[in-house]
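User: Second chain of the day. Same drill as before.
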Amino acid sequence: QVHLVESGGGSVQAGGSLRLSCAASGFSSPNYAIGWYRQRPGKEREKVSGVSHDNSRYAAESVNGRFWIFRDNAKNTVALQMNDLKPEDTGVYYCAAAGDLFTLWVLERPEHWGQGTQVIVSS
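Assistant: Same format as last time:
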């Protein structure tokens, strides 16, 4: 059974940084894609950033150049470094995974979800 466990959310002022982490376990193959989605207040859940097993990385336009995704295959972890945070980045951030990056990022159909971690950015 796949488990995704997030950590690292919190509150920060605009312009600050936070780093989210996700520990993955239970995958039968190491070739899964993993990344982050978020749900901002009053909005639908949306993709933020994703990475394939061989480190092809993608980021949503709204966070490109501010958020960076890092994957450690040896430790089965993925991190999201969030810099220059803005109040509109406030929301619940979910670690998400799928068997391949196309499913995770293009189809936007993660097969596994973490429980979510809250990020609050104040102005």
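Helices lie at 101-106.

User: Great, on to the next one.
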